[in-house]
Every structure is written in structure tokens, then in C-alpha cells.
Amino acid sequence: MAQSNYSALLGPVLAWIDSHREEALADLQRFCRQPSVAAQDMGMEEMAAIVSNALQDLNAQTSKIATAGYPIIIGHLPGHSQRRLLIYNHYDVQPPEPFEAWSSPPFAATVRDGCLYARGVADNKGTLVSRLWAVRAWQAIHKTLPCNLTFLVEGEEEIGSTNLGAFAAANQEIVKADACLWENGHRAADGALSLNAGAKGILYIELRTRGTAYDLHSSNAPIAPNAAWRLVEALHTLRNPAGRVQIEHFYDDVLPPNERERELLKRFPVDVAERWQSWGVAGTPSDPVAMTEQLLFEPTCTICGIWGGYTGAGSKTVLPATAGVKIDFRLVPDQDPDKILALLRQHLHKHGFDDVEIVELEGGEHPSQSPTDSALMESLIRSARLIYRQEPRVLPRTPGTGPMEQLCQRYGVQVASGAGVGYENSRVHSPNENIRVEDFYLGIKHVAALLADYSAT
Amino acid sequence: MAQSNYSALLGPVLAWIDSHREEALADLQRFCRQPSVAAQDMGMEEMAAIVSNALQDLNAQTSKIATAGYPIIIGHLPGHSQRRLLIYNHYDVQPPEPFEAWSSPPFAATVRDGCLYARGVADNKGTLVSRLWAVRAWQAIHKTLPCNLTFLVEGEEEIGSTNLGAFAAANQEIVKADACLWENGHRAADGALSLNAGAKGILYIELRTRGTAYDLHSSNAPIAPNAAWRLVEALHTLRNPAGRVQIEHFYDDVLPPNERERELLKRFPVDVAERWQSWGVAGTPSDPVAMTEQLLFEPTCTICGIWGGYTGAGSKTVLPATAGVKIDFRLVPDQDPDKILALLRQHLHKHGFDDVEIVELEGGEHPSQSPTDSALMESLIRSARLIYRQEPRVLPRTPGTGPMEQLCQRYGVQVASGAGVGYENSRVHSPNENIRVEDFYLGIKHVAALLADYSAT
Fold first, then answer.
1. pTM for this prediction
2. Which of A33, A164, A436, B392 has the fewest CB atoms within 10 Å around its CB?
3. Contacts of B319 in chain A (CB under 8 A)
4. Is CATH 3.40.630.10 the classification given to domain A3-197+370-456?
């Protein structure tokens, strides 16, 4: 078979997918019914075995590579073209709590009104299984695949991918594919698939203050330091009310959008008005394109949590001995989390807050940006047009964070994201996480088409 | 009997007290073994009955006056002089939690190494029982009392004395005594009894902010309001780092110390160095007299608690929908909590924080100040010298708060505080609350002597 033939061979593959919907759905339910909550060490070994067995069933050369945490499952599948595509997914899911907010049990994988409800079905078991079934469909019809594939399925994405960087450094022969198809994706309200080629980085820290050795009666306030006030004073130096971070040199490495990225921002602005309405935020955004640029290209300093003293019902006249705040800095190319941490330290020192303790909660994550016109992205766009019969929405990056830099960008591997089976109401990380069953079938077809296109380009 | 004879008659009364120590201690243990936690509605009826019966045993004209909350117990005891002394105490105690921090159960009333351990023994059952036994001693020896007494024992002091003001307004014939002896008191590390004639007021509120209808993924930060940041910004306008409240007109009604009060500050400065050491605060206070003035005469704005977003272990990338803070404003004469609340509202409005909600948690408490040279205070001082053989430490007021204004000052009744049985390690409101048994006996004698002195002056 010549590479250019693959697209012509796609028709029967798509037909096979249509005639195997029930089996594919049942397989996805099987994946979803196995809890795999890394944060709670629940069902992880069983889930790793399910993934590993599924890859072996596809005749993949499968290995389970131990890490300091949960193992990483690798599955190599040979294909006819020279190209090798790395497919990144994860087998862990977020904790399901609060249980009482679910309409059906989070690991029951119940289908209701055309939707499949399960913790992890959108993020990202549905996507993982759709990719496995795309392979199965190609094999069923043509015995072989259009290109070489390497599945990399880690078990720690929801707890910070702590061991992925070390794995990548030690296994560059696995990582250095021609491109990497990232986990997950979703269709917007208008049905368009959202594609992107990057993610923000993150620095997540706590600041902690201590005023006294123990909580005091608040009548001592005139002659005792107050840890909560001290924290408020330190915080107030970090950010102005417009959201601009006040740390010196914080913005030094921030790259503005390039020409192609600006075009995409103009073409596919986020519907901020709709989001504001959903969030209960008053007013109308004046310029959606500018706000989309803000969303994707502005680094932030966000209070994720703050605490100190008495927070129960009613009043307690206590002077808090300690207070703390959790902050995430979302970083954009080319900011470096280690450098930002150093700048934060300098900032606190300069403003007289040497007493404020910085606690690093996780290793930071570098931002990542691949070109939005890579071969893989172009293939994703063309195959999305074919399957969804609709132009996909391509944006430079997601405002979220993923370990793309440490797995791929550091080794020159370009990433494209957004082939997945979620939709705008998938409630990722929330109760009643779900996908539309039809999106699952379309997702299988999209990947099947992608393999053909990527091999042929 | 002529009034001037009472002091001469005191000797046998004190001797009787010495020979009835065991019975008095057993009676105090009985009071302490009855839990009476108003905040938890625990044992309140039983405790009210114990107090009421104890007053009836002294042949007091006793009544239990219903309120919207727990009843107030009144006991009138006739005496020979014209003077009538109102004695204020309360029969409720703080919650005993955390139980595991107690060396013996909080309601076991165990004596260990000369100390009696029990929730409420220092605040203020020990003081109440010492006063009852002073009456009993006078009755045992002389059948009658030096002056008229009215015991007023409420059941809601630890939950804000919510119904005391209405009671006082409706029962002025009870309240309008010649003076009021306030609950409680303690001996400093050097053994000196601490006396005072006033208390700060309080305004206790919550400020609450809302940014979005529900918590968002923190990646939305560039285009979503953050309730925690909003709260920090509002808070920062309220107080400068030196502790000075920035609300316009906040200090307008603050009275500086008068000449007599200044003398007392100079004579009995608080040992701030010792407190700082105990609190783990670095440095040495430069001017203890100035700091004592600060402690007693400066109003404050104290963060008692602050919360918002995720405060558990590790990291969660959440953008908090709501945040809140509990603040107490300690007020000094002649500040008015209602006026301060109005000023706070104006302040938030003026600074563009109309969206910040103010929640009043309890009715505010007015500050209160009686003269430090009232007849009752002079009697307290003289009788303290007699019994403790040591000069008492007289300061204008306590930095704490009590309902003196609504019970007494509003009706022209002067208050003196500090006759009590606690000491510097009594751990009021904390686990292992305790008094020294010897202080309990001295407390009975002090009140017995006070009754003689106050009648004779």
C-alpha cells in the first residue's frame, strides 16, 4: 500500500465503526466501571491492567514501566508509513466526591437520555477508548495501521504528573515521535470541535504567616501581631485590582501572540458573554477577541484558597496565630515557574515580608506552545471537517495546564490537542461528568480519519 | 448595729470561713459538676435550679425571670445599711471542647496539686460560689448582712448576653442599685488582684464577597472575578499596617485617658514583655506604659477569621465563588457600635465596595467606663489589701468586653470588676481551666470583707 492510499481506504473503516457501536460503548463502560482515583489510591493497579490488556488485545508491544508513583503503560503499534505518532492519555480520574451530587453512582457508567455518566468518562477514558477502537477498526478491515503509533498512558495526570518528566528524560526513544496527540477534547455548544496546540504552565504555592505562638483572645489585638492581617498586607502587594501582577519582572518573558495566533483569536473568539451569563457575572464583555487573548495569553495570580482563625458559625473573638493562602500562577510562554518563584521571593523580601513563608506544593509546570499549523494539527483539522462536517475551532492554546513541556516540547516533539469526546456540558472534574454517546462514536471515527490523513500528508 | 461596726465584726466571719473550707470547696465542685453550656443547650435548666436553690438556702427572696433565652436568676438579701449592691454573675460556661486536651474530664471537678480543674471554675462559677459563701459566713456569725444585696445571675454571658439589655430595661428597680460588683477576677503572677472599672465595646461582623455563581476552574482567572481577591482589596482599605483603622470618623468619639486613669496606667502597666515572650513575639516593647494605654484605650479592627476557596491539603486549582471574613471592632468610650457600623457601610460605599455584604453576627456591645475611684472600687481596694496583704493592680478597664453598659451604665449604676478567684494560668475558655483552691478561700474572704467595708463607707 502506498501512503497516499490510506484516505481511500477509510470508508470501510468508518462503516465498521458504525456497525460496532454497541461493543465499543460496552468497552467504554467497562473502563468507566473500574474506579481509578490516583489521589485516593483507589483501583489503580486494576485500571493499569485493563489498559495494558486492551493494548495487548490490539497486538501492541506493551510494557508497564514503573515510576516512583503509578506505572506508565506503553503500547507500540507498527504502521506502514514512516511517521510515528505518540498518543498521550491517562488512566487516573479525579475523586468522585461529593457522591450525593451525582444522579447515578459515579462508577455505574449509566446511559441516560443519550449520555453516558461516569467519573472520568470525559476526562479522559472516553477519549482513550475511542482511540483504542479507531485502531481496532483499522485492524479489523485492513489488518494494519496507516502509521506507527505509541500509546503512552500515565496514571498521575490528576495528581500533577509528578513522575512523567523523569520518565521522559529516561525514555527519549519512546517520546521522540514525529508528533504527539494530546489527551482529550470537546465540542463547543455549536458542535465545533475545539483544537489547540499548547497550554499554560503553573506555579502553585502557599504563603503562610505566623503572628503568635498560639491563638489569642482578640482583646489583645492592640499589642499583638495578627497573622491574617499580615497575610492580607502581603497579598495586597502581589496584584492590583485590575488583575495585573505587581511582581517586578513577572512579565519579562511573556510572548505576545504571533500573526497566525492573532488570526485564530479573531476567527474563533471565546463566547465570553455566554460564560459570564452562566457564571452570574453582570455586564457584557466589550471585546470578545481581546478577552480571548487575555484568557489565553495573560499569566495570572489567583487566590485558590485562603484561611485563618475561626471560620465556623457565629462569632468567636480570636486573634489568629497563623493564616495561609493557596495561589496559582498560570504562566504563559516563555515564563519559567522556577524563575517566577525566585521573583516572588525577591518581591516579598523587597516589600519587607521576609517573615512570609513560601511553601511549594508541587513542582511547577512549564507552559508549552507548539505551532498551530503543524502537520498533525493540519491533519486534525482536515479529519475533523470530514467527520463532524463542521469547521473546528482552532485556538493557540488552552487556558489550562498540562505536562506537555516536560513530555514533548523539551524534546522537540510538537503537540496538538483536542481530539476527544466531551462537549460543553461534560462537567469535567464535577459531579455528573458525562459525554454524549454519539460524540463517542464520532470521536472513534475522527481518530480513524486522523490516522489516514496524518500518514498521507 | 451601727454601720461603722461592721469592720470590727469581720474577724469571726473570716475565722468561720477558715473552718468551713471543705464544705465550701465541695459546694463549688457540685456547681462545676453540673454542665451548663448555653451554646450547646446542655444542662442549663438544671444549673438554673442549682443557683436558685442556693439563693433560697440563703433565705434570699429568689425569682427566676424568663427571657427570650435562658432565665435570669434574681436573689434579694436584706442588709442593715442603706446601700444595695448588685452582684452580677452568670451560670453558663464555654463549651468544653476539645475534650482530648483536658487532663481530667471538664465536668469532673478534680482537685490536683492544689488546683481545681473544671470548665467554668474560673469563669465564673468559682467567683459566684465564693460570693454565696461570703453571704453564708456573715449569716452564720451575725444572722444578717452588712448591706442589701441583689444577686443577678444570667445564663447567656458566653453567648452574647442577648436578652440582658431587654431585661434591664424592663426591670430597672432590680438594676438600679448603688453600684454593681461585676463577675470574675484574677490574681496576676505577682499575686496582686487586678481590679478595673470598665470594658471595651464590640461590633462583630462578617464581610462576604461573591464573584461568580459557583466555583470555577482557575484557568478562567483572566476573565472571571475572584471573590477572595475582592475581599483582600476591601480589607486592605480598612486598616493600615500600623493597625490604624482607616474608616473616616472612626476615632471621632474616642476619649483619651483622664488624669486619674493616666496615673493608674503609669502605676500598673501591663507586663507586655512577659506577654510577648509567652506569645513568641520577638523584640522588647519600648514603653510598657504607652502599650498599656494602647491595650486599654485603642479601638481595634481585628480579623478573627478569614476563608474562601480550597483550604484542604495539597493543591486544587479553583477560583472561589465566595469568600468571607469575621471582624471584631473593639470599641472604647464613647464609640457606639451602631454608629461604627454605619461608618463601615459608608466607607465600603465610598471605596466602591457596595458589592461587599456586611453581616451583623450579634448586636454590638457598647463600651463602658465607671470612675476608678467610686465608693465600690475604694472598698474593693481596701478589702483586697486586707485579705491579700498586697496592693491590688487597678486599671481603668479591661481590654475585653462585657454587657456592663446595657445592664448598668445606661441606668447610672457604677461598676467595679475584679473580685474573683482566678489566677494568671486559669486558662479561661481553654482546656484545663482551673483555679488555685487557696484563691477560692481568699476570694470568699475578700467578698466578706468587701461587704463590711462597702457598708461602712
1. 0.90
2. A33
3. 302, 304
4. yes
